[in-house]
Amino acid sequence: MDKHLIFYAMFIPSMILFFWGMWFRVSLYLRGTLKGSEEATRWGKFIILLGRGWKGFWKKPLWYIKILITDVIFHRKLFRESFYRWFTHSLLVVGFVATFAVDMIKGFTTGYLVELSHSIPFFSFAHAFKTGSIRPFLDFFLEFFSFLILIGCILAIIRRFFIRPDQLRTEEEDVVTLVFILYMVVSGFFIEGYRIAHPEVAASRVYMADFTPASANNWISFFGYFLSLFLKNITINPHFLWYGHVIPCLVWFVYIPHSKLLHIFTSSVTVIADRVKQKSHAV
Amino acid sequence: MDLSKLSPKQLLEIDACTRCGDCLRFCPVYSQRMEEAINPRGKIQAMKKFLRGQYGLWARVFGKKKLDEAELEKFSEMAYRCTLCGECSVQCPVSIDSRNLWIALKEVLVDLGHYPKQLKMMKEHVLKDHNISGHDNSQRTDWLETLEGLPAHRYQKERAEVVYFVGCVSAYFPMAHKVPQSFTQILERTGVDFTLLGGAEWCCGFPLLVGGFRKEIQELIRHNIEGVKKKGAHSVIFSCPSCYHTWLEDYKTDLKLFDSTQFILSLIRGGKLRFDEKKIKVTYHDPCDLGRVSGIYEAPREILRSMPGVEFVELPNNGERCKCCGGGGLLEMIEPDLSASLAKEKIKEIQATGADLLVTSCQQCLRNIQSTARKMKIRLKAAYITEFVLQHMH
Lengths: 283, 394
Prior knowledge:
The complex is a heterodimer.
Chain A: H1 3-29, H2 42-59, H3 61-73, H4 76-81, H5 83-117, H6 127-130, H7 135-163, H8 172-197, H9 199-203, H10 217-220, H11 222-231, H12 238-255, H13 263-282
Chain B: H1 8-16, H2 28-33, H3 40-55, H4 57-62, H5 69-79, H6 87-91, H7 98-111, H8 117-129, E1 162-165, H9 168-172, H10 178-189, E2 194-196, H11 206-211, H12 218-230, E3 235-238, H13 241-250, E4 256-259, H14 260-269, E5 280-285, H15 298-305, E6 310-313, H16 331-334, H17 336-353, E7 357-360, H18 363-375, E8 382-384, H19 385-392
Parallel strand pairs in B: 1-2, 1-3, 3-4, 5-6, 5-7, 7-8
């Protein structure tokens, strides 16, 4: 069966479960009382809060963007507290955000625009993203940002399990989260390494991403290439490797709303709300 | 468990805690008790557990778990052993507004009937007698008796531009009487047209608010605003940071509100207040409700710096990172020993500066630090900022 079809058959239900999980959390928050709209229903509160956020953003969009970059993504407060923690956190955040962004660009251009270009010639530029000059850069950045996640994850493991600061308490959830992230990146690199080590796998289109020119593997897929050196004499079912990477990635998505990873969204809100409050106090 | 006491943002904040434990390094109560459940992380995790049992996936499918009374009691014990100093909010990497979260959680606990019995008495005093100590409210101005040259109106005029809101602690606790006594003299000598509300002043509602009885303060708010408006005043000045913050956040009034330090600074800037030179080395303690909670750090420092001969030295932990003296959040009422142990730490820090005098701008901090020093038989000179200003006035 076509890999795209299989992927979407798993991806769409996963996304539905992810959004359901998010709504499950949000609907709990909406049980709280919203000042000034005490009688509103949960859905009503949701609309009011969205409206307030939207209005607030457009009053000073540049300020919000600045706060998003400096205080949410680059976590200025953490930087002042500890360089090690800030560096680890930044590698993970930047790695995830950038990998997600590049992957979205890649998926959108190679998946949709290329298809569309057959009927609308304007979109023919998308071919550069699939097989042309842009493709190696897309693949390189995916590799690079995933590598940042790997380094961030290793640093987090070192801090949690070897440095072990007094204030840190490791619970099951922390172990699951770190193991999940580590597994996702390592299994991704492993697939890549296997593809490079076994050209017949790329030729038979086992994987969805198989357009990287083999001659450029050593710099585009630098970590995968490094792993491939050890995988040449090992034979594994490539389908098994693919499922072993994709399924946990999708499970991870579904897991986010029910885990500490939810702080990706919730802490962004608390940080921005705090800066808004500080700004209004300063005024 | 009724979640209507919390806001959507506060419920979200419970999820935003990543259990990083940064708050542990700064929580003054945790530094004394070293119990996981008493620190901010522990309290958030406990609340998370209650929420899971009541509103989690399992609860939605199979029904809510009955709230464990023993667990609630433990949670209440931990939640009420907090000075509400707000240092955890300042230090939290994800900026959880924990001080307000603790207050909201107390409202949930009050709703469930789990709160310290001492608060029941305090609540009755405030609602019945309109002050925290249960005295006759007409005795609010007894501190005036020892003032020399008291005018006939006893600072309780029919009309005035400014109202000085004294607050319960300064009015009823002899150790704090110097606060209103010195401030009224400053106002008098600088020609400010001011009045007291006298027996018409009711508790601002702060003790009820931080005890988890928010809905009971509306009557107090209405009464106090009416009292000020009757005097035709446009401004209200406070020497109690807790009263000041309560008015600022909960009174929703068009009146201009000033803390005593802000007002004194405006008098200095306006040339109405000048000082004689007296050599002294002082340090300053930032009261939590004035500093972290209301954001006033500079006004008291500017006052001290403007006084000739005053050598001002900072405490090692100052400004946003100033350590709580243990006098806040009703802790002194609920667990006096714990409150005193925090004050002891504060005293050590003050002594390390080598200052001749500690200046602060909260009557409760002053009381807590001074009474602990006395119990410890430590000679520590401390003064409220208005007292210090009055001594140095030209």
